[in-house]
Amino acid sequence: MNTSPAAGAPSDWVQRWAAAIRPRGTVLDVACGSGRHVRWLHAQGFAVTAVDRDAQALQPLSAIAETVVADLEQAPWPLAGRRFDAVVVTHYLWRPLTAVLRAALADGGLYLHETFADGQQHLGRPTRPEFLLQHGELILMAQGLRILAYEDIRLDAPARCVQRIAARAGS
Question: Which of 115, 136, 135, 119 is nearest to 127 (CA)?
């Protein structure tokens, strides 16, 4: 089985930290794309809400998750007032959404974020600075949360530079 992100397998970071989510809890997958994490988290017993701007990508997920079609960069936050036991973000960076995502965490909720970092531009896409985290930036984005783990690392298969964080809200 090909376990690279391109093959649709869930991130090893998400898999590693999913056990820290409240059992049978609610999980928000932000910019979920084709739903590799939605499917995996659902199979682990979580109630998943999937958000993406691509209605076609979300349609097959509607049988296993609440799906919300929304352009997170151009429209208001579609889940105002909702709280989740975990917020999962992978391969997506929209800095203006940072405070909204922290606010979407229930007390004790887990924030899992993994996305491309500076150095990626030498390995492949994305290459534009606005899509690449600067050194330590993900720690700043998790300000106010208790950081459980953080990595700023180059990974292989496929080669990529990422930052990833696991952080907990409140208690």
Answer: 119
